[in-house]
Write a structure and sequence with these properties.
By secondary structure, the protein is of the alpha+beta class. It has a single domain, classed as Glutaredoxin (3-Layer(aba) Sandwich). The chain contains 8 helices and 6 strands. The strands form 2 sheets. A 4-stranded mixed sheet has the order 2-1-5-6. A two-stranded antiparallel ribbon has the order 3-4. Strand 5 and strand 6 form a beta hairpin. Helix 5 packs parallel to helix 7. The longest helix has 20 residues. The radius of gyration is 20 Å and the shape is globular.
């Protein structure tokens, strides 16, 4: 009968360990934002077809700031509106060996993140309607600021003015 407590401890540890390894990945949690997240290949093809810009959210499953972006920024109404109006959205795991096609070369998501200059997480990548890189935005950004950045890039203001000038125009009394 002394083995019963040992069995109960082993069973409890098994449930805890199983919970750790089966918890939802960040990209699954992001589905709660009602955004149509795509893979890189799906998203880049769709962006070309729809003549929209491409936003690539580069994350890792262990990144707490990435999870914060998913929970606090992407569900924000202004952010969702700007994304659905101007972008095709992609989730990309910077530690994945899943293959993608970028500029005619097959590479892993991990290699892609390195090739485009990602050095921390989260990082948001922006591509124009022809899949040419626009810019890279490192780190967590609060929802209101992120919505302004999305409008600045999504509406093409970045082609004529600086971001500071754009913000000054937004803040100017009408």
């Amino acid at each position: 009968m002394k083995s019963l407590p040992v069995i109960l401890i082993i069973a409890a540890m098994t449930f805890v360990i199983a919970g750790v390894f089966t918890s939802p990945h960040r990209s699954e949690a992001a589905a709660d934002t009602d955004l149509a997240w795509k893979t890189f290949d799906e998203g880049s093809l769709l962006a070309l077809q729809q003549k929209k810009k491409l936003l690539v959210d580069v994350y890792t499953n262990w990144c707490s700031w990435c999870t914060k972006m998913d929970k606090e920024v992407y569900p924000h109404e202004k952010v969702k509106n700007a994304l659905t109006s101007h972008f095709v959205v992609v989730k990309l795991d910077a530690e994945s060996d899943k293959k993608l096609n970028y500029q005619g070369s097959m590479m892993s998501e991990r290699e892609f993140a390195r090739v485009v200059g990602v050095t921390g997480y989260p990082t948001t990548l922006f591509f124009d309607e022809n899949m040419k890189p626009i810019t890279l935005l490192p780190g967590y950004v609060k929802a209101e600021s992120f919505a302004n950045i999305l409008s600045f890039i999504g509406e093409g203001h970045y082609k004529q003015t600086t971001y500071k000038e754009y913000l000054d125009k937004l803040a100017a009394p009408r």
